[in-house]
Amino acid sequence: MQTEYVTHYRGCDIHPVVTTAEGGRYTAAAIVTDREGETRTLGVEGDFAGSDEARNQAMELAIAWIQRRHVVSDHYVRRG
């Protein structure tokens, strides 16, 4: 399992987790921690040939989730 790679995006920390599966394949997930310390784990459906591909897919999923959350949050926050 690889978790040393961390990216900061829109105030969140993204930790992709890559795990070796059967036959030398890889699976991935992303752990996202926001500014308040709330953590969410996002799973990536797939069976990847390389660890870089698995990590990249986990990062893409996390960034998409953060972007959707950011848009929804901004929509419902009153600015005054």
From TrEMBL:
It comes from the Bacteria. This is Uncharacterized protein. The lineage of its organism: Bacteria, Pseudomonadati, Pseudomonadota, Betaproteobacteria, Burkholderiales.
